[in-house]
Specification:
The protein is mainly beta. The protein has one helix and 14 strands. A five-stranded antiparallel β-sheet has the order 3-7-6-5-4, with no helix packed on it. It is globular and about 70 Å long. The structure holds a DNA duplex. One of its GO terms (molecular function) is DNA-binding transcription factor activity.
Length: 297
DNA sequence: CGGTTTTGACCAGCGC
DNA sequence: GCGCTGGTCAAAACCG
């Protein structure tokens, strides 16, 4: 996995491109591409990007971007390279405003605001300490077709904020992992251009296991279902329950050590009148993305 | 009662 | 410098 050309040094593009060899995604025909593009996932022509995914950030410790292990560095608007590992599957997910460059805990005044209460007008007593710049941890963003905003990913999250998004009727929610030693955060917002799409952005990596095996998928009338799950397990077991009125299937997949980028499990099997095609992607060392298509007969 | 969500305010960064 | 925006805080409300 130590790809010599793991980074496109010329890429000032904030769009994260998927690894060069797309065969491991099983995207080998135009039909697949059509399906993906239908969801706004455009797989660019092969471009060498990340290969090693074993950098494994630790809890609360911002990871240094290592050019040999990192994907495309994302350039901020100011032109500086940020410590971001955005996996934007060709989408506007890679917003890299650097407004979060401040220390986590010292960021806020002690008693900043109490909902509904008028602020103590004099800011004298609530001066925020200006600590060292917060180093942004690696981020990973992707989109999911879902009616549910907050998709279950096996971890427990605590919502700590919600903001209205400019030019969007949908708010953005901010979550933090409930594990006290874990500093992973995620943002969830619904696409303003496609309200059926949820944009989820993770920042950081969990240093603990999931609390349960849960993954939720959305289904569309077109019989294309997809979703995601994020696990820290080397061994990933996914339960997929497919119900579409006529048929109810309950299948179990088990992938072994798919944490190594480049390994893709593609299984095709028939069940009753359905053909299920399952693809497991491993984009980061702890993240799996599932895409599976249902088709008649 | 403890954990989670809601929500208004605060702050930093950025563009103009 | 000012205004806008994103991100976060934290008290209050809510919930099981």
């Amino acid at each position: 996995m130590d790809d010599d050309n793991s980074i496109d040094p010329l890429s000032g593009d904030s769009t994260w491109t998927l690894p060069g060899d797309y065969s491991f995604f099983g995207i080998t025909d135009t039909r697949d591409n059509n399906i993906l593009s239908e969801f706004g996932w455009n797989f660019h022509p092969p471009a060498p990007v990340l290969d090693r995914m074993d950098s494994g950030g630790s809890c609360g410790v911002p990871e240094e971007i290592n050019p040999t292990t990192s994907p495309v560095p994302v350039h901020s608007q100011a032109g500086s390279v940020e410590n971001v590992r955005d996996v934007s599957i060709s989408n506007p997910l890679v917003s890299t405003s650097s407004s979060e460059d401040r220390p986590e805990s010292s960021a806020a005044s002690g008693d900043a605001a109490s909902g509904g209460q008028p602020p103590s007008s004099d800011t004298g007593g609530k001066v925020k300490k200006k600590g060292p710049k917060r180093i942004r941890q690696q981020r990973f963003a992707f989109m999911t077709k879902s009616e549910i905003d907050h998709l279950e990913d096996g971890y427990r999250w605590r919502k700590y904020g919600q903001k209205a998004v400019k030019n969007s009727p949908f708010p953005r929610s901010y979550y933090r992992c409930t594990n006290s030693k874990c500093t992973v955060k995620k943002r969830v917002e619904r696409s303003s251009t496609d309200p059926t799409t949820v944009i989820t952005t993770y920042e950081g990596q969990h240093c603990h296991h999931t609390v349960g095996i849960i993954s939720r998928f959305s289904f569309r009338s077109s019989r294309v279902a997809w979703g995601y799950c994020a696990y820290n397990y080397a061994q990933l077991t996914i339960y997929i329950k497919v119900t579409d009125g006529r048929l109810g299937l309950h299948s179990k997949l088990s992938t072994k050590d798919s944490s190594i980028l480049g390994i893709t499990k593609v299984r095709t099997f028939d069940g009753d009148a359905l053909t299920k095609k399952v693809k497991v992607f491993s984009l980061l060392n702890c993240l799996f993305i599932l895409f599976f298509q249902l088709s008649d007969h």
